[in-house]
Specification:
By secondary structure, the chain is mainly alpha-helical. Helix content is 51%, strand content 11%. The protein starts with a helix and ends with a helix.
Length: 79
Amino acid sequence: MPFSPEHLSELNLLARFSPSSLQAGIKVHSHEAPPEMVTAAKRLYEKGIITQPDGGYLTDLGVETLEHTQRLLGILTSE
C-alpha cells in the first residue's frame, strides 16, 4: 500500500517535533498553516499521537511514532 497524501502530511507534521526535546510541543495555527497540516494535526490527535487537535505534545504513542518516522527519514535520505 503506497503512502497517501494524508499519510505524507501526517509524517511531515510529525517530523516537525524535536526528537531531542520531547517537552517541546508544536502549534498548528489554522490561519497560517496549510490546510493539509491543519487536517493532519486533527487526524494525529484522533489517533492518539498528539495531545491537542492543533498540535500540542506527543503522547507515548506519538514518541514511538516519531522514532519510527525519524528512522524512516534517515534510511530514505542516506546515500
